[in-house]
Amino acid sequence: MNEKNPFDNNYFIGYISHVSPQFVKVHFPSSTLLNKTIFSGEEFNGGLVGNFVTIEAENAGFIGKISEIDLPEKERLTLSEKSFQNSDFHPTAKVEILLSFDYFSGNAQHTLNAFPNIGAKVFVCPSSFIQKYVMKFGQKKDLDVPYIRLGHLTSNSETKVYVSQQALFNRHCAVVGTTGGGKSWTIAKLIESMTSNKSKVILLDPTGEYTAIKKGVQSVAIGESAFFPYRNLTKEDLFFLIKPSEGIQKPKLLEAIRSLKIVKIYQDEIDKPNTRSQIKSFIDNESGLLKKSNGMIKNFERYQLQNFEKIESEDININIKKLSKQVICECIYPTDNNNNNLFGSVSERDVNFCYGLSSRITNLVTTKIYDRSFDFNDTQKKETNLIDIIEGFLSDKQQKNFVLRIGFESLGYEFQAREILANAIGKYLLKLARNQKFKENPIVLVLDEAHQFLNKAIVDDYFQSTSLTAFDQIAKESRKYGLFLCISTQMPRDIPVGTLSQMGTFLVHRLINYNDKEAIRQSCSSANSDILAYLPVLGEGEAILTGVDFSMPLSIKVIPPIQPPDSSNPLFKKGN
Prior knowledge:
Layout: E1 12-19, E2 24-27, E3 36-39, E4 42-45, E5 52-56, E6 61-70, H1 73-76, H2 81-86, E7 92-101, E8 108-109, E9 121-124, H3 127-136, E10 147-153, E11 160-164, H4 165-169, E12 173-176, H5 183-196, E13 200-205, E14 217-221, H6 235-242, H7 249-267, H8 276-279, E15 283-284, E16 289-290, H9 297-306, H10 308-311, H11 323-329, H12 348-366, H13 368-374, H14 386-394, E17 403-407, H15 417-434, E18 443-447, E19 457-459, E20 465-467, H16 470-477, E21 483-489, H17 497-500, E22 505-508, H18 514-523, H19 529-532, E23 542-547, E24 554-558
Keywords: ATP-binding, DNA-binding, Helicase, Hydrolase, Isomerase, Nucleotide-binding
Organism: Enterococcus entomosocium
Pfam families: DUF87, HerA_C
């Protein structure tokens, strides 16, 4: 598209008559200037709310958006059908200044150091001029970054919106909107575009609606064709599942995990050879448990110290079916009454406190939904191991698939299994990011229906709550490691403020609820009251695109994806 002069007199519509830090007012010399015209093959509607205008000031040019049109009070008194046909009116418009630009370089100024002067000319903005700045959003001068074609401006279908992929995801992205607003199609469009750009995406799909996307997608379903191996859970993840109480249970569970790790390290012979004799007497080979009672404290502590890194590693590489009995084995006195160098005997008081914990562990291992998710009984096939699937996807040099869809549609909603599982996947990806796995080849993690997984807490028997924080941590720290987060939700009010405030880009579809709009207002600096006023009336597929790397907010119509998600509702049918 050839760029047109934004200050061509054929586009002229009025003069600046009022200037304030928040907005300017435009005086139209004649109402005929607001009529629809066609110039150089392009259609212009100068007097519509939502249209873009350019302002020719003394030191810089400005782009603004019409937010309100009004008639002077004395002209309102003469309004009639006949007067509209025969008279000329002199409307005024309220225009929100979006950005300023340098006349010579054309570079956008992200801060307004100057304002238009009274009497400055105002013009309808050509579509090519707007598109020029849209294409520069997030563009790095020394990098050839891929672009995503999102759609076109709602005010002008000829103005195509191509946005730098770096600008969209560089500071994380949020796609929000009520049901039916089009956010699922927007996510599908983003995924489709990133696939075309050969960028890798991991999609957490709680409902299975993205199974319809086939091209370039590797799809697995937790509990059906994949499981997250419990040995790759962290101690914190296991605490979420077992819910130990503070006081006796939590320390005993930690000790039991350490003890079973020692057993595993000893049996696999990966400990330091000169330390094996120190721990041999503690291990009961028949039961596979570690029994400290009446054992030498110094030997045990020396073994722990010399094999510290393996024992205190993040994952819980243990035989979890032994854990309930090992917890009871930990219920001993710190020292023997007759010899302070030895561990004490069984403490019945501690045992009584830990029977409930032991029962929860047994129930965890035997509960079907948890076993399908984490394979506690080691019965599922190795090729369905989600860790191996993720690592294979990331290291795929054949570039067969660019999207890994991890579906939760086969899992029920019992026992908070979905939330804990998603949190575990998030923590694993964060671990990879911290280990520099995505530094050279960044990856986008898309979390659909994010309100199901964020701002969730696990409550134990004593009503003590612990929050699931993996995605909050990803939002706060993973950007510098090359792991970018894209969340989609119909209820932004349910997303933690700390997470939402880390989103640098927003694609906001229709929002009606006051608290949802306030959540966006507080999290997005450019989402002022004028922009939020459009949210309740946005049509299907329409959205406000705004963000840190965007010089101005845009009202866009998103292009439908080639392979849309299955997000339609079942239809009522007339009976026979």
